[in-house]
Amino acid sequence: MSTLTFNGQEYVVQDDENVLDTLLRNKISIPHGCRAGACQACILIAKPDQIPDDCQHGLSNERIQQGYFLSCRCEPEQDMTLRLPNLSGEKHLATIAEKMQLNPKILRLRLHCRLRWRAGQYITLWLNDTTARCYSIASVASLEDFIELHIRIYPKGAVSPQLLNTEIGDELLIQGPYGECVYDNKQSQQSILLIAAGTGLAPLFGVAKDALNHDHQSTIHLLFTVKQASDYYMLDALQQLQADHPQFSYSLASADGPPHETWQQQLQENFTELRGRRVYICGGNDFVSQAKRQCFMQGATRRDIICEEFINFSAAS
């Protein structure tokens, strides 16, 4: 078993534990959020030769050389000496400019912040010094002066109920942006298929608007799927986008709808050949894995499939 040294104290890593698990089990207050390597809230520093190869994904080369790593992804292969980085300079103050519930389960926040972003990227939102969550950006910087987030509300969560109780003018700390789920204007002649589940609509609605703002020449279709029809939101905005742009269309699929209207059936019937098409997939882990597999089987190349997986915080968000 490996031993972690942190603030002069030693902690033994148990079987199947990562660094974050070990520290939290020992009541060490470590910033963390998604626990899946996306939000980068749990970054720690160690000697580079102590860090396994697979726990620095998404970090810059500079950070990797400095010994930064994602503690939630790190299962030690040897003893490690750890310290917290100073990330205060990377957090930005954002002010809530607008707040609206889009349906009983989805909260929309629009934030004003001096930050450069692209639609489809995500930011890490800090509730306090140790608790953070990731949310994707639905707004286009060149069209809108706010960062728009669609937040799934979990009644017993640690973050979303707190955000539901915020007021216009309240200030939040955000970090980022991160991610590559963005429109590539070099592919303006390539047809685009956007497949969104739940709040996966947020980044893909942003990608669609960004593409249309760049006068995308080929077709853009958005397939929006939810567990039940009452979970749909922003349908008026999708309808308006379709009315304003002849190259854009959308379709809906709910798990409680007719069998022939499932997203899988729509893919099979309406997109029999995906070769040459750019495919974006956003939603929960299982959904993304399944949709990615089906799109690949229908001809989409791995290079043309861009995915953004969301973490399920139903028990802890």
Automatic annotation (TrEMBL):
This is Uncharacterized protein. SUPFAM superfamilies: 2Fe-2S ferredoxin-like, Ferredoxin reductase-like, C-terminal NADP-linked domain, Riboflavin synthase domain-like. InterPro entries: 2Fe-2S_ferredoxin-like_sf, 2Fe-2S_ferredoxin-type, Beta-grasp_dom_sf, Cbr1-like_FAD-bd_dom, FAD-bd_FR_type, Flavoprot_Pyr_Nucl_cyt_Rdtase, FNR_nucleotide-bd, MRET. It comes from Zhongshania aliphaticivorans. It comes from the Bacteria. PANTHER family: NADH OXIDOREDUCTASE HCR, OXIDOREDUCTASE-RELATED. GO terms for molecular function: iron-sulfur cluster binding; oxidoreductase activity. Residues 1-88 form the 2Fe-2S ferredoxin-type domain. Its cofactor is [2Fe-2S] cluster. Residues 89-184 form the FAD-binding FR-type domain.
